[in-house]
Specification:
The complex is a heterodimer of chains A (196) and B (178). Chain A is mostly helical and 196 residues long. Chain A contains 9 helices and no strands. Chain A has a domain of 73 residues. In chain B, helix 3 packs across helix 6 and helix 8 packs across helix 9. The chains are: A mainly alpha (196), B mainly alpha (178). Chains A and B meet through helix 1, helix 2, helix 3, helix 4 and helix 5 of A and helix 2, helix 3, helix 5, helix 6 and helix 7 of B.
């Protein structure tokens, strides 16, 4: 059955319309969880507000389990779902640069749109920065193309990488997340700050 | 009065675990419907490609960035799943903010720094994040969150690099936040 667009159960235009609806839900959940506030987001890295960790990992695990169950029930063909390819060098360097941008700017791209939607001017300026950064990457593309394409590993799954089945890996990740949630709750009590 | 005010303050956001489950269901819906996860920086890339192509087609033709994009995507860059999704994010964020009474023009910053400093940091952070998202083939949404949901090795690596670096640098930028 799924993915609906790839199996041509819905048309391309319906898919775009549903993208808009999914975006509304995405933006609503992010904003309602407090991701429109850079001070709340940055709190993650100082321990006073760990909402990022809780929402992010609960979200990733929920979607991961959903995918595994949908596949088990034959509701979705996982072979047709896009799995992000792994280019080792750029995955790490890109992530490091993004991490620096996160602690300096206080937002990531999705959350900055969310902040801008409720009038945060710092979020709007962050978005201006995003456009500059993407353009700079494009302008010098030939210079870093070598690094961009280096160490291509295909689209491996992390479960395959560790020689585990998807289910066992998911279980281990859930246990790790539960451990992190406990640490997060402890940190929020230890480093209390008012809510923003 | 003071007490009831602080009680309201504490409950103004969704419970984070509930928020996470809802976020996961949205991501699951994206994968079930479109066969792909959520994203954000991809919509900015589409817009940049569109602007460059419209302003100067010669620059666009000679740009490896633009031609790589057009080769892998095809069609008009604005008729793109992530562009529609991100327009939705603006609407959804606005609706949530309106319902919760959070719509307000302001520069949000730690009282220990000026608005001007905050805006400078936001611009710098945005430039870095924009650049990094292109190198890393997606940001926190597209590469880390959506990648993790489909168990992509690269998604987990990028997630650890983003959060690990932010933690490692937190000490040096603490005056901006605490």
């Amino acid at each position: 059955m799924g993915p609906l667009a790839i199996n041509e159960i819905i048309s391309e235009n319906t898919n775009f319309f549903l993208a808009f609806i999914i975006g509304i839900a995405f933006g609503f959940v992010l904003e309602a969880s407090g991701f429109s506030s850079s001070r709340k987001l940055a709190g993650m890295f100082y321990g006073y507000d760990t909402v990022v960790l809780k929402v992010f990992f609960t979200g990733a695990i929920t979607a991961m389990l959903g995918m595994l169950f949908f596949s088990l029930f034959d509701w979705i063909d996982l072979d047709l779902v896009y799995v992000n390819p792994t280019y080792l060098t750029s995955a790490i360097t890109g992530g490091v640069i993004m991490g620096a941008g996160f602690i300096i700017g206080g937002y990531c791209p999705g959350t900055s749109f969310c902040g801008a939607s409720i009038g945060k001017i710092d979020a709007l300026i962050f978005i201006v920065g995003l456009f500059i950064g993407v353009s700079l990457f494009g302008a010098g593309f030939n210079w870093w193309n070598g690094m961009y394409m280096a160490k291509f590993l295909g689209s491996p799954k992390i479960s395959e990488f560790f020689g585990l089945t998807d289910g066992v890996f998911a279980l281990i990740l859930i246990l790790i997340a539960l451990g992190m949630f406990r640490v997060a709750e402890w940190a929020e009590k230890k480093f209390p700050r008012e809510e923003y | 009065m003071q007490e009831s005010k602080s009680a309201i303050k504490k409950t103004k956001y969704l419970n984070p675990y509930l928020g996470g489950v809802l976020l996961g269901l949205v991501l699951l819906a994206a994968n079930f419907i479109a066969g792909r996860g959520l994203g954000a920086s991809g919509a900015i890339k589409s817009t940049v490609v569109t602007i460059v192509t419209a302003v100067n087609s010669q620059v666009a033709e000679s740009s490896g960035f633009v031609s790589e994009y057009l080769d892998t995507h095809g069609g008009s860059p604005m008729k793109n799943w992530l562009v529609f999704e991100m327009l939705g994010v603006l609407v959804g964020g606005f609706l949530s903010g309106a319902l919760a009474g959070r719509l307000k023009w302001k520069v949000e910053h730690y009282p220990g720094i000026t608005s001007r400093k905050r805006l400078f940091m936001a611009l710098s952070g945005g430039i870095l994040f924009g650049f990094g998202s292109q190198l890393g083939r997606g940001c926190t949404s597209g590469s880390a969150l959506s990648g993790m949901a489909v168990l992509s090795l690269g998604g987990f690596i990028t997630m650890m690099a983003i959060f690990g670096t932010a933690f490692a640098l937190a000490y040096f930028f603490r005056r901006n936040w605490i």
